[in-house]
Amino acid sequence: MRSTYRVLAMLIALGVVLQAASIAFAWFDVLSAVDDGQAFADFDDDSNVGHLLHSIGGTVIPLLGLVLLIVSFFAKIPGGVKWAAIVFGLIVLQFAFAIVAFGIPAVGALHGINAIAIGVLADRAARQVGASDAVTTPRAPTAA
Amino acid sequence: MVNVRRGQLRLILATVATAAIVVPLGWMWYASLVPETYSVMDMGIIDLGGGPGPSDHAGMDETPGALSVDTLTGPQTGTPDVAMTLTAEQGDLPLEGGPTVDGYTFNGSSPGPEIRATQGDLVEVTLVNESVSEGVTIHWHGVDVPNAEDGVAGVTQDAVPTGGEHVYRFVADDTGTYWYHSHQVSHEQVRGGLFGTLVVEPRAAQVEPPALDVVMAVHGYDGTDTINGRVGETWVDAEAGDTARVRVVNTDSGPMLTWVAGAPYRVAAVDGRDVNKPTDVEDTAVLVTAGGRVDLELTMPADGSAVRVGAGGGETSMLVGQDEADAPGTDVPDDELDLLSYGTPAPLPFDVTAPDREFDYTIGRRPGFLDGRPGMWWTINGKLFPDVPMYVVAEGDVVTMTLENSSGQVHPMHLHGHHAVVLSRNGIEATGSPWWVDSLDVGDGETYEIAFLADNPGVWMDHCHNLPHAAEGLVAHLMYDGVSTPYVVGGEDDNHPE
């Protein structure tokens, strides 16, 4: 459970990096194609690989966050639930920012900033496993 | 002991917390699943719009003597004035002046052949499916055909399988510019090229025909913009002083601006309905809804220079005039024509002040499950597909519908089988010519009030013509009381209209 927790948290952090990469790719792809005279309206999820990947990531990361939270309940990592809940909460917020940004594009900036927060805190959650090892090992006998 | 209890308590808490998350999500997921085979008759939430009618869904199915859409055909006898066969194929599609894409063709080309009929003609089209593996149909977009000829897989017919055929027969009652396209897996087939255009000309005696009458079907194949299947500039010949009518058809999924550069022009018709007393405009663009048509009319400049008809922007446009003549550039005009106040008012053919039914079609967006897939999905009246409205009318009803969009994106709303007149936008009443539409661009934050006469019995789709949106559940139906369809979505014929 503990290593599952750590792997999931690391996957989320990695996922954030891939999301940043895919959306940057998507937009340079669009700009380059528009420069070549293609109509902007022709782009949708299917014809822009970067955007397609970003959409897939946007489904996979919330699932990972959910599984991380559930795993945290069983993993007996001190502070594990807290960090998993924070990460999951930020993912929910990320989703909300995305929804609002379709109507108010400026909110998209918060989507970008929050992404960094998710990455950093998912990494923090992954480190919590090691950190709690250091703390819990000597404490274990006193728990009895 | 304490340790064990604490461990047990922890396990119980963890299990309860997990259940608190997983059970509601699981239930939402399960509740969203759509059966593989279903009838649109059994789908959604009955909306009577304040009129009379059965409130029980199942009861409607079993109403004795219910009229089947199968019986609502065009004339079954009589020699057609226009007869043709359209053969659908799947495969490589070389674009003229562009790349070869994976696509679909009618009679070996995309767009398929242009069909020209004269008002009152009996049109007979035999659809043959040569090699389209998912099956095909033909929907006559904007032509208010009898229901059985409407070509919607799973609603008005079964998809025509490879090797099969289907005959469509209808009278071309209304003049104007229309188009036809497959309504089976349409978000892929139409995009891939399974469409063509249809023009219904007036009887010669009525109107002096323009010297040049040309269709300009705009389509993006896999990101490559074309006009009548060709990439780049398309020249059509016209002489100084000629009257030219350019019939612009937007076969894509998003709104498109069109305009004439180099001469004043007027919008003669929208969605196959003449504009009453259109005035000349210049340096102004007009929006063509996805699926919609706009007929531009102009007089060729006396000095012999060419004019450019733009579509969306960029090189891909139509040049009208003597070949190689000086032509204006490709700049998109800053001004946009507002059809709400264009032309001169005229009396409507029915009284909209006391409608028999009033419907809301409110489009939103929210996270949830669509047939088990998590995501951000469109809602109609607050609910996700398949809990969409089933608007019920009776023949002869005057119907008003309020289309409201707060979903963050534009939606080109297309009602089959009827033309509706725009009454107001964002509370501002229409003051121009009656603005008749079959496809209406409803932007984010916009509210349109439209009205139509329920004069064409059947079961009709009323959906977003951004076809991927339709595939994402932005689909409702309009159904006449006492009419039922024997066809099902899914089923043996694998009908998938969206």
Structure write-up:
The complex is a heterodimer of chains A (144) and B (498). By secondary structure, chain A is mostly helical. Chain A has one domain. Chain A has four helices and no strands. Mean pLDDT of chain A is 85; it is low at 138-144. Chain B has three domains: 37-69 and 347-490, Sandwich (Immunoglobulin-like), CATH 2.60.40; 82-201, Cupredoxins -  blue copper proteins (Immunoglobulin-like); 212-336, Sandwich (Immunoglobulin-like), CATH 2.60.40. Chain B has helices at 2-32, 57-61, 186-189, 467-471, and strands at 45-47, 67-68, 82-94, 100-106, 115-118, 122-129, 139-141, 165-171, 176-181, 195-201, 212-221, 224-227, 233-236, 243-250, 256-261, 265-270, 273-274, 284-288, 293-299, 307-311, 317-320, 335-336, 357-370, 373-380, 383-384, 389-393, 398-405, 411-415, 420-425, 428-429, 436-437, 439-442, 447-453, 459-464, 475-480, 483-484. The radius of gyration of chain B is 24 Å and the shape is globular. Chains A and B meet through helix 2 and helix 3 of A and helix 1, strand 23 and strand 24 of B.
